[in-house]
Amino acid sequence: MPGTRRSFVSAFGVAAFLVTSGGIARQAFAQGKDVVILAAASLRNALDEASADWARKTGKTTRVSYASSSALARQIEGGIPADIFISADVPWMDYVAERKLIKPASRSDYLGNQIVLIASKNSKTDLRVDKGFNLRGALGNDGRLAMGSVEAVPAGKYGKAALEYLGVWPSVADRVAQAENVRMALTLVSRGEAPLGIVYKTDAASDPSVRIVGAFPADSHPAIIYPMALLSTSTNPDAQAFADYLKTPAARPFFEKQGFTVLK
């Protein structure tokens, strides 16, 4: 059963990633030198570039663990040591805040984003994302719509909300391939395992193997906001310095190049 095998492989990959990233975070935190960051998977390209720029300018380094915001929030709840959390939505930051796991005064709304419908670069799919558009028809006889988990992953939740608003969710609900994070949804389309997917605009920009078919109207889903905060367990004096750097004009281009909006 191909579907079952794909789910198993995907789940195994995520489990391995979380164990590995958690180990890296604990090791870096124990050494007390690197700023340890837990960041939404969609931030990978931009945050890696910003971190490298900060290292060049200051001689100080970071370690970043990427996963879905839901997985990271639960790791924080479980006691994983880290300095900074950047979530892809407000509810998961609220989740850790309610448990007193962040420093409230350090919290800020850092970035904005968009969700888009993507296809492989060579796809002939031509759709206009609008009320009642024929998304199921575009999937073909047995194609799947790749999305982050619609119950936990922010991009998946935004995507489901948009499809409900546009009146097409009931027609595709049984054709959704739910991934553990948005980058895995991107990979399913990039590799041709799903004809269409819903990801952030910034994810689409990071992969030349896909193209944007259409953007979802901003009013079709809750505003996409990436909050950032220092964790309550952080004692690294460089953590606040790095968070401050991310808000400077020097860091802005790395995020804007990927399609993020840097919030004031």
Descriptive overview:
With about 260 residues, this protein is α/β, with parallel strands linked by helices. Helices cover about 45% and strands about 20% of the residues. Helix 2 links the parallel strand 1 and strand 2. It starts with a helix and ends with a strand. About 45% of the residues are buried.
Short description:
The chain is of the alpha/beta class. 44% of the residues lie in helices and 20% in strands.
How are the secondary structure elements laid out?
Layout: H1 2-31, E1 35-40, H2 44-58, E2 62-67, H3 69-77, E3 84-86, H4 90-98, E4 108-112, E5 115-120, H5 135-139, E6 145-148, H6 154-165, H7 169-172, E7 176-179, H8 182-190, E8 196-200, H9 201-206, E9 210-215, E10 225-230, H10 237-246, H11 252-258, E11 261-262
Parallel strand pairs: 1-2, 1-3, 6-7, 6-8
Antiparallel strand pairs: 3-10, 4-10, 4-11, 5-8, 5-9
Helix pairs in contact: 2-11, 3-4
Number of strands: 11
Mean pLDDT value: 89
Which overall shape is indicated by the principal axes computed on the Cα atoms? Answer: globular
What is the first-to-last residue Cα distance?
49 Å
Unreliable stretches covering 5 or more consecutive residues: 1-21
How many DSSP helices?
Answer: 11
Q: β content, as a range?
A: 15-25%
SS class:
alpha/beta
Biggest beta-sheet profile: 6 strands, mixed
User: Compute the gyration radius: what is it?
Assistant: 18 Å
Record the strand order, biggest sheet: 2-1-3-10-4-11
Element-by-element helix/strand order:
HEHEHEHEEHEHHEHEHEEHHE
Helix content: 40-55%
